[in-house]
Amino acid sequence: MKDLLEKLQSQEGVRDEKEVKMMAPLTLAYMGDAVFETYIRNYLIQQSNLLVGELHKKAILYVKAKAQAEIVHQLEEQLTEEEWGIVKKGRNQKSATTPKNAELIDYKYATGFETLLGYLFFSGRIQRLIEIMEKSVAIINESRKR
Known about the structure:
Blueprint: H1 2-10, H2 17-22, H3 25-47, H4 52-63, H5 65-75, H6 81-91, H7 104-122, H8 126-145
């Protein structure tokens, strides 16, 4: 997965910190959503031999707004001050869409989480991005056991 992320990223090259910080938070969230969805799909395919319909149902457990809000709350103390600032910046954005199957507050924190993932992707921090996504999977897996 790391190789894929690095290959995708190298298509445009790592952006400098200043440029990434100037990107719109919802643009970062847009990329973060795609990166996390891809990571989860790959994770599930590696874990099982399920049909696509079942893979989709399982993927939703990880990528839905409520799950991402739970992830970001549990990761809060493990994030740097800068990373938490990015989460808050994404969380506070006014979105053109409204959540269909989520509480507004969960949707906002999920957007913040995706913004952080997009930020890490574009700023070339692939190892940190993978670390956060691995922790995210562990958080949701632990939550499902309860």
